[in-house]
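=== How it folds ===
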Amino acid sequence: MSTVQKVNFEPVSTVLQTQFRDFPLADPTLAQPLNAVALVDGEWMVINNSYKLLRAADIATLGTAGAGGRATLLSFPLFAERGRYDVQAIAGTKMPVIFRGEWEFDTRIFDAAAVVGSGAAITTVLQGVKVATIALGGRNYVGLVGHGGSADAAPVAGYVTRLSANNGGKLRLINGWRV
């Protein structure tokens, strides 16, 4: 099991070939650090029809792999630590996500034991992972759980390259989409 800290999504590979994009939040209050459900780096987001960021799943319901059809959409990892002043100061309260490129990151926002839908626990290197609502430290986040392979309709968000048991409690993954 992972624990949420100040930095939850750390690059392992170079980020020079990775494209970050700032998108406005559909709910700007999620950038406020004192908000009980504030966003943290390593949570997964989708872009809505208004070109704004939403959490990729409903955090009110543990285990959801999406709400309002979001489970079938490509998700992007958030790359801004909770409470960053530059994010709060940007007009429209924009948050950066990793939008394109190839990357490898360590994340704390995952639940290796959770089985969501037709998914599976995270147990092997190169196993696919998907996005779902998980509980860490008494609070829900949108993080990673094991993908169920061909029986699972959710998109693959990434592939495990190092298990948390061998990586200081952090799950290492490469992106599943190659845009």
Summary: The chain has a mean pLDDT of 86. The radius of gyration is 15 Å. The CA atoms of residues 22 and 96 lie 4 Å apart.
